[in-house]
Amino acid sequence: MKLRHRHTLIALLLLAVGTGTALALSTRTTQTAQTAASDALKKGQPTKVVNCTRINRPYDIEISCGLSVTYTPVDQTPVVIVSAPEALLPHVAVTQKSNNLTITLTKEGQRLRKRERINVLITGRVPHAIDLNSGSTLRFDKGLQTDGDFSLEASSGAVAQWDVTLSVKGKFEIESNSGAVVKGKGIEAHHLDIEANSGAVATLDAIGTHSLKADANSGGVIHLSGSSTGRASLEASSGASIRARDYHAASTDVDINSGGNIKLGKRP
């Protein structure tokens, strides 16, 4: 079989592992994916790579079952690289359905798994939405830019974090539910909509928007710092709280009920 160096680098690397590695590649794998595969090999981790050629735009990403995910925006077809113990690797399911990319563990994988860490790297064009649940973690390691809308939802103990700028020219929705944590530093958006419910926390710093809406309820907590050039609407209810002492807007509407609490800084 004739091999081309650039287009088959990952295939050669992964074949060298010899540990039941699964592989689904096209010839247009990104350099980021190649580097990640090489790093996994150096650590002796069984790895599989899936080039998501059946994903259409706009698309969503769903992540569950305690996976540790890093997302790197690259303007190409999404590529998913999974590193896991040999016994678990076949049970990490990467499913492509039109505009939906799902990454999870099969029922058998959930049964077999103990405390092993399963690492996932996603590289590809910016999705319309990311849904993170069931104790999974998500990290953005590179600034994100999109001309449209973008939403991020974390639930059931999931954690999402970043210290790079996520720039959304449209509406940016962030929702944290059921004990989840969203912690980010660096947001640019025309409109930012934040919700924290059922004991979840959203800590968002270095915000720069035109308008903002923050809604905390049922014990949820929202921390804000930054500014908006237009109006901000803050609502807290049912024992929830919003702490915005380091956040400023041209005008602010405040709605507190059922034991909610909102703390603001000194207004100009």
Roughly what percent helix? under 10%
Order of helices and strands: HEHEEEEEEHEEEEEEEEEEEE
How many domains make up the 3D coordinates? 2
Gross morphology? globular
Averaged pLDDT, please?
A: 86
- What amount of the residues lies in strands? over 45%
Biggest sheet details: 19 strands, mixed
What is the gyration radius calculated from CA atoms? 20 Å
Structural class: mainly beta
Number of strands: 19
**Number of contiguous helices:** 3
Commentary on this structure:
The protein is mainly β and 268 residues long. The protein folds into two domains: 7-125, no CATH class; 143-268, no CATH class. The chain contains three helices and 19 strands. The protein has a 19-stranded mixed β-sheet that branches. Helix 1 (9-15) packs parallel to helix 2. It is globular, with a radius of gyration of 20 Å. The chain starts with 8 loop residues before the first helix and ends with a strand. The model is unreliable at 1-30 (pLDDT under 50).
Describe the structure concisely for a colleague.
The chain has 268 residues and is mostly beta strands. It is 9% helix and 53% strand. It has a 19-stranded mixed beta sheet that branches.
Topology of this protein?
Layout lengths: L8 H7 L7 E2 L6 H12 L4 E5 L8 E4 L4 E6 L5 E5 L8 E6 L2 E6 L1 H6 L6 E6 L4 E4 L4 E4 L3 E3 L3 E5 L4 E4 L3 E11 L4 E17 L3 E17 L3 E17 L3 E17 L3 E4 L4
Helix pairs in contact: 1-2
